[in-house]
Amino acid sequence: MAKRVAIVLAAGVSSRMNTRLAKVLHEVCGRPMLAYVFDACREVGVDKIYAVVGYGAEQVKDRFADSNDIVWVQQDEQKGTAHAVLCCRKHLKDFDGETLVLCGDGPLIRDKTLKTLIGKHEAGQSAATLATAVLDDPAGYGRIIRDTYGNIQGILEDSDCTDEQLAIKEVNPSYYLFNNKVLFEVLEKVKPDNAKKEYYLTDALSLIIATGHKVEAITAVLPEEAMGVNSRAQLSEASKIMQRRIQRQLLENGVTIVDPDNTWIDARAQIGQDTVVEPFTYIHGEVRIGRGCRIGPFAYLRSGTVLEDDVVLGVFTEVKNSVLGQGVRARHHSYIGDAAVGENVNVGAGSITANFDGEKVSRTSVGDNCYIGSGAILIAPLELKGGSHIKPGAVVSQDSIGKK
What we know:
The protein has 404 residues and is of the alpha/beta class. The radius of gyration is 26 Å and the shape is elongated. It starts with a strand and ends with a helix.
């Protein structure tokens, strides 16, 4: 198998986002859009990711500080995509393998598409291969220029196209795979001979063709995958598409989602077989739900929550950073935060854990087979022994039930 690295372009500033946050850190279904690109690279055997950063570089590095396969490359001035790739030269000038080049603001990328691109590249033993898309509305994208035999002749940016070329529907969504040595041989020759006076990576492709190397283009990118995020409206649309993907996968895995259009599930959530998610449920963050649970309607599960099998959470119930054991019932208007709740516990309507005293968050522990009456307030830090019976409306602290 060929050695393979990736260059991910994540240095750009998007004025249309109107943000102080690095564009690639804006979240799609709970994860930074850049995370999806990194994951797609890993799924196709990338050994090392070279992430080119500029605006908000420290923010981006901090967000991915736990990743040990990323090399951060600084692009101080944004002079175009070819310039961004050239910033990686000191790291890759002696690398003899394949280099993927992708954009960090394309969260809808799929590893399936990258596998198709890689397969085409290796079967054709090409110097460069790109995956293209066909769009009903190609405005804003570089157009793929082919000869009468279907061979790629180059790519023209939207701003440089003639009226006839603007009618071309096959576009460049920036999915590239290069022979690394060939790529860096031509990058130095790229000139800013275009309307924006930038150094385009697409011109590197033209130079590779001009030197007699083989370049291929395969139409493999779905229209939704081609969408980059450059505005809040596009971010919202990408989130909707990603949410459909997340829910489709859960449905295929045996989860019932009663009303997908009125349910939101984080990309990091895990949900077990035969669990039913009722309408207007919001599951955010790293949440794990077991088998045979029933969630909602109007339930809110927050990061750090673990529900074991056969848990029922009903209307307007919120759970945060808590573990609920098998058979727990919390059907109405309850809040459970920073708690460990044992098996077969009944949490009555309106009962809550009071986990924050204005200065610190404390935990609550509830043993197996406890009964928490309606309207009870459990004041943390608190430990209830198994089999405890809390009367409706009671205010319970560790002092009120005796020190351990």
